[in-house]
TrEMBL record:
Major place of residence: membrane
Membrane topology field: Peripheral membrane protein
Catalysed reaction equations from the record: tungstate(in) + ATP + H2O = tungstate(out) + ADP + phosphate + H(+)
Keyword terms, alphabetized: ATP-binding, Molybdenum, Nucleotide-binding, Transport
Origin superkingdom: Archaea
EC number: 7.3.2.6
SUPFAM superfamilies in UniProt: MOP-like (SSF50331), P-loop containing nucleoside triphosphate hydrolases (SSF52540)
Protein name in UniProt: Molybdate/tungstate import ATP-binding protein WtpC
């Protein structure tokens, strides 16, 4: 288990991490997610002991390790680049890790176990420059896990890999993490990585924790506008909460009906932002609309074909641009006049 309490880090007058706290339960996979410069890597490096925090504390399995040197924290680290010793073979790289951490078990059996786990047993006598980028990343994971650390820290480990390899590697990483059952903290700016790999996600912005929770919770119920806009695509409407029998947000030119369970006490009624995810928006011909709630007309201004779906941009009559997903088999073209519609219960109100 990892617990970070009120972690703060200054670099001179620059506040890089601002009073950040979170907890990761034993065996869980958590991700620090945010844009470049938000403080996520600084937080991870403080947990590893690579930098000293200005204040706050880091606890591993109930023990305060804030003043413990990195080599005594029993942490496995994987960085953006493989950081393998180029003059050593794959086997020697793993053996060095076991030696430095003072691992008491059978070194040969441990090396074989983890090389097999990352599907690299046949490459034990190869040197890093004889391996592909993906193979080097696998060895980095094996070296970080071979001495059985209390926690695994991953600092954007898939950077630089092509899209297909990144997707393959993130599935492999998650499978290995679950097999080993090691508590893991992953740092990335990639929303799809965070949502697909994690049990929990901690979203950061400008050195602060914006929101933490399960991926589905953050995506469906963002607590702030930053989280709503950073986690996935959406269409935003701005307006005021109207006093009617059912919740309605009045924009400059239209009305957005929202779910009956909307808690208006949590928003400023004079400045309301509403978001609709693209998968919740139906795009069709006017004759196929279902009722007249949240129904708007416009024309398609852009279509991006993505294989499994098409991404549409529809310019509404009031000037708003809506982003929606469509089946690629649906016969729509740029310039088509269409109707968009979405369910009030799928509207996010902030």
């Amino acid at each position: 288990m990892l617990e970070v309490k009120n972690l703060t880090k200054y670099y001179g007058d620059l506040l890089a991490v601002d009073d950040v706290s979170f907890r990761i339960e034993e065996g869980k996979f958590a991700t620090l997610l945010g844009p470049s410069g938000c403080g996520k890597s600084t937080t991870l490096h403080a947990i590893a002991g690579l930098i000293d925090a200005s204040s706050g504390s880091v606890h591993l399995r109930g023990k305060d390790v804030s003043d413990v040197p990195p080599y005594e924290r029993n942490i496995g680290l994987v960085f953006q680049h493989s950081a393998l010793f180029p003059h050593m073979t794959v086997e020697e790289n793993l053996r060095y890790g076991l030696k430095m951490q003072g691992f008491d078990g059978d070194h040969e059996a441990q090396i074989e176990k983890y090389l097999e786990m990352v599907q690299m047993l046949d490459h034990a006598d190869h040197k890093p420059d004889e391996l592909s980028g993906g193979q080097q990343r696998r060895i980095s994971f094996a070296r970080a896990l071979v001495y059985e650390p209390d926690i695994l820290l991953l600092d954007e480990p898939l950077t630089g890999l092509d899209r297909v390899l990144r997707e393959d590697m993130r599935n492999e990483i998650r499978a290995i993490q679950q097999e080993v059952d090691v508590t893991t903290l992953h740092v990335t700016h990639d929303q799809s990585e965070a949502l697909s790999m994690s049990d929990d996600v901690i979203v950061m912005s400008e050195g602060k924790k914006e929101q933490a929770g399960a991926p589905a919770e953050l995506y469906d119920e963002p607590a702030t506008e930053f989280v709503a806009e950073f986690l996935g695509q959406s269409t935003k409407f701005q307006g005021q909460l109207a006093e009617t029998s059912s919740p309605v947000v009045q924009t400059e030119s239209t009305e957005i009906h929202v779910g009956d369970d909307t808690d208006s006490s949590q928003v400023d009624p004079d400045d309301v932002s509403v978001y609709v995810r693209p998968e919740e928006i139906d795009v069709h011909q006017a004759a196929r609309t279902n009722g007249n709630i949240n129904v708007f007309t416009g024309s398609i201004s852009h279509i991006e074909y993505l294989g499994h779906r098409a991404e549409l941009e529809v310019d509404l009559d009031d000037g708003t641009t809506v982003t929606a997903f469509s089946r690629t088999s649906q016969e729509l073209a740029v310039g088509d006049d269409v109707t968009v519609q979405f369910d009030p219960d799928e509207v996010i109100v902030l």
